[in-house]
Amino acid sequence: MTTVTLTQAKNDFDRLINLADSGEDIFIIRDNMPKIKLVVVSDKPKKRFFGQHRAKAWISSDFDAPLPDHFWGTDKKFHQYPVELIW
How far, in Å, CA of 58 to CA of 4, rounded? Predict the structure, then answer.
């Protein structure tokens, strides 16, 4: 792990990029607090494959059933209190 100040990072940015590229953790600090972590963007996205999340999610058997009226706010309980509009 390498920790440098902002001024040091400005002056020696090429070296820090090379260190980060080799796997080193680079932290840039300001006011003695870490503010930035320098990371390398990977060239290749992680390989995705079909079925990797199998059995980790489910859909209810009544997924496509109509929703009850109270969901839409059309039941009588919803309208028992008058709503006053203030303009």
Answer: 48
pTM of the model: 0.49
Distance in angstroms (rounded) separating the CA atoms of residues 1 and 20: 10
CATH 3.40.1620 matches 2-38: yes
Pairing outcome for strands 26-30 and 33-38: antiparallel
Residue 4 near residue 29 (C-beta atoms within 8 A) = yes
E strands, 31-74, in order = 33-38
Report the distance separating Cα 60 and Cα 39, nearest Å.
41
| Contact of 78 with 68, CB cutoff 8 Å | no
Q: What are the tens digits of pLDDT across the range 55-64?
A: 888 888 988 9
Domain coordinates of the chain in residue numbers?
A: 2-38
